[in-house]
Amino acid sequence: MSAIKRFFSSHKTSSNSKVNNSQHHDNQTSQNKSSNNTVISGGDSEKLTETNETIEQEEIKENITPTMEIPMKSDSMSSPEIESSNDNEEKKSSKSSSWTIEDFEIGNLLGRGRFGYVYCGREKQTRFVVALKILFKVQLKNSKMEQQVKREIEIQSNLKHPNILRLYGFFHDEQRIYLLLEYAPGGELYRRMQTEKILRESEAAGYVYQLCNALNYLHTKRVIHRGILYYIKPENILIGKYSILKLADFGWSAESTSTCKRTTLCGTLDYLPPEMLNGNGYDEKIDLWCLGVLTYEMIIGKPPFDSQTQHETIRMIRSIELTFPTGTSGDLRDLITKLLRRNPTDRLPLKDVAQHVWIVKHADIAAIEESYVKRKKTLNREN
Question: Distance between CA atoms of 152 and 253, rounded to whole angstroms?
């Protein structure tokens, strides 16, 4: 049996003394501040691992790629309950075949958010590496975010595309929910944008092409990936193996139908389209606007409607006050201008974005398609 099959088809009984011995620290966050420990805090902090036993990045890179499609355990995709810690007996009986944190080694911190952390994790028996997203139930419950987490699990578990971060499964205990996500060794796109300031046109065009593929897939599934609006969050747009871009964080996605438009205001201000600022209903065409903003920022180095005040940014978005630095190519201007249209129906469709002259001229589409093939071979086959 392969390591990946064993990963999700067998239950292990190994123990993690570090986790077991630290349970009494859950309500003593202030006492868990040691320079030698990696501590997960946030209302019910717990020492998960010690620094000298963390997973080294060089070691991780050798084990990040699964060799075949991962079969799910029969109980791995049932929705977790976000409840009080008084229901221990019920949870114990329902968790007899579930994974626990004891099955994993916890490595480097990959990111953090409002409700938890993302760590690099490695399953002890198979050495299979995942991104382990840890969410605290009490914080989710207090913030009334239970449904958002369930939505994230329900949506992402049904998505299989090379440009979509895989959700392999999840488990939960009395205090936390653990999501087992595909590990993206390239890290955050936003971090790369911060480091490079301005991306090469060939790199940016390749990313736009891949985002078109991802968004087209999501739209056929009737999912609006508002995550692009939240790209500054650590888990939103990641760079995976073979430089394949990965959309993630589907807690802010929403199912869409042709007869229903969402009205929730969300997203960073720089990326909000006019219809959301005006409180109008919106559909998947908000992603076209966001794609235009992201394209501009990757090449120019700042959002197109960047200003000193929120009021001024809102005014610029509503009036489509769009300017380009001297030297910006006509092809790039044309693409961005056709995406940043006030009327959503006037925005360039995804299929036309992928075939736009700027994309064709600068993106190495053949190399991108080959990376998809390489990924598929390493997975053996997609379901």
Answer: 7
